[in-house]
Each structure stands twice: as C-alpha cells, then as structure tokens.
Amino acid sequence: MKYVIIHGDGMADWPCDELGGKTPLEAARKPNMDLLATRGTLGLVATIPEGMPSGSDVGTMTMMGYDPRRYHTGRAPIEAASQGIAMGPGDVVFRMNLVSLQPLPGGNAQVMHDFTAGHITSDEAAQIVADLRRELAGDGVELFNGVSYRHLMVWRNGTARTTLTPPHDITGKEIESHLPEGEGAQRLRDLMTRAASILARHPVNRARRERGLAEANSVWFWGQGTRPDVPTLKDRFGLEGSVISAVDLVNGIGRLAGLELIKVPGATGFLDTDYAAKGRYGLDALRKRDFLLLHIEAPDEAGHMGRADLKTEAIEKIDELIIGPMVQGLAAMGDFAILLMPDHATPSKLKTHSGEAVPFAVMTAADFARSDGQTRRYTEGDGAKTGIRVDRGFRLIEALLGRSGFANLN
Prior knowledge:
The chain has about 400 residues and is an alpha/beta fold.
C-alpha cells in the first residue's frame, strides 16, 4: 500500500478580480485534481487552529497528523531540524530572512519592500551569511546558511518570548511598529543594526544594485522557538517514507517525522521549479518506501506576489506534471491512497496567509477504478458544497491511511 500527500503550498485563495471573480483553483485547467475530487472524497479541512499563526509551520504540521497545539514550538526550530542543527533544551532558534527595506520619501521611516530580497540566489546569500557570521557570531549567537532568503540564527540559552512579526505579513508597510519588542528585543535590534551596516557595503549588494535588483540590506528575525519533541510516523503508524521539498521548513517537519529527505535537481522553492522532476523522484521514492510527502512552494510564492495569474499557472503545472503522472504511476504499483491539499490559503489580494479551512481530496485505488457519474472540481466552493468538513485537521491523515472514516474525525 502506497500513501501520498501532494502539498500545494498556499493553493487556496479568495475570488480574484483579475480572474473574473474566480479563485485560481476555479480558473485553472486541472483535470487530474478534478479527477481526485470527483472519484474520491472532497471536503474542507481546518489546518490552522484558532489563535495560531496562519503559517506553513502550523499548516504542514496539521497535514502530517501532528496537533500544532501540542507539538508546535515555532517555525524556526523545524527548519533547524532540516539542517540537522544540534539544539539544547535552553537554545532558541530564529528564522533570519534577508530582506529589502526602502525609506519612505521625505523621512527616516522604512518600509518592508521585499521580504525575499528580490528572491536573492542561494549563492549570493551564502556569501552574505558567511560575512555576517564572521562579524556577528559569538556570545551565544550562531548563524546558519539556508536557501535563497531563508536562514537561521541560534541564540544559545536565549529567550523565545520576544514579540516578532513575520516579514511577509508587512509587505509595503512601515517596519517601526513591527521591530522586536519585549524580552530579548534589544539584543535582536542590535544584531539587525550591525547587519545593516555590513550589508550596506557588501559586494553582493553592490553588484545587485548595478543590475537594478533589490538589495539584501537588512536581516529580519521571526518564527522563534525551542526544540520540538515529535514522534515519527514509524512510531505512530509503522510507516517509513520520504519527503520532497525545496524548503527547509517542510524538510524539517519531514525529518522530525522520520522521513528520508530526497533532493531533486532543479527544485528551487519558486515558480521556476522543475515540477516534472519532483514527480519522477517522488515515484522513485515510492518504489523504495510506502509514504511520500511531496511539497510544491510555487503557488504560495505567487500569492505573496499578489499574482493570481501566476498561481493559476503553477496549479496547472502541478496538475499536469506531478499529479497526472503520479496517479498513473501509483495505479501501476497497486493499492494506493493519495491526498491533495494546501497547508493554508494565501490570498493574492492579501499577499499573505489566511486561516480559513481549505479544500482537500482523498482518492484510493478503489475510487480510481470506478465512477458514479458525478462531476466535481477541486475548488474551495465545491469542497464546501459536499458538507464534509474536518475541523480537527490533524486527524485527516487517519482517513488517508484507512485508520478512520471521515465521519469520525471531529
């Protein structure tokens, strides 16, 4: 028996004017997703518990069957697990974005121009983080290089109680009211000030400035937490599996769950990712192990850009290049169950995450072999029409694994 979760990050959306009042899922041509919705079970699932942040850390943890209220300690510790960073019980890890700030005209105030620093390349970022490490590390502070704009800072025996704001929540907004506050804030602000001085004269930024690209002129700390204690899928369900993602966060949850990390050439965590390669590597992984979490970041990135058209294109590529070949490959292997869902919505109008329930579809090999003549589409609206809603979203994996019926999940 093979089990697959296709994780279309941030696919769910709100109606978009530029799409004629449709969501990207409604506007996209996606026959394979619609097949899952038609022949399988379609509904809505709550991935973000009330009062928790609408982030991929919470949503993906829910997707993998972990109650975030019990297991979530912060976003950054999950990414630290992906990198294999050793953490003691008193250590706190922070996400450290390379960001681009811009001054407001006629004043000293700055706004969050781009929380990705123009999607800075990993090679450029590695040079920057290496120099920041040389200048800033010490006295309990350690810096770790990640992918593109996504990096980590560990504060040994630090504090996790500082009030911090995710940078993607304040695009185009003044940063002053969102700077670190509370316990430990002064230490973080000092690091940010020192980093800005280094970045102002950094050769990578000089080169980007000459090419008309956004500069990585500041660091931004957020998503902090301590080491989580999470049981593996093998401990819980007797399953061994793999995770495919170009994002440290999802790889970290996979590593915590005991999954094998599969690196795919051409997987970028952006719109230019190699969708087909992810599908091929996913099928190869399933020939060796029985579970796969396959994550695609592109729809979320398009949502953060406010580009519903690009999100629609990403959804269509996921459908054609991943889900279609995946279903055919699974059918050739024998018995299977496949779950399609996002971790949260990323409304293009909002340019950040929101916490409403999102559509899911689960199809088994038995579902695939039959048709009841009905037609449904994998959309937010059709998901709501079925009347199936899983409010305790972390239990949805039990239905995928055949451990529970949908009626018994809430």
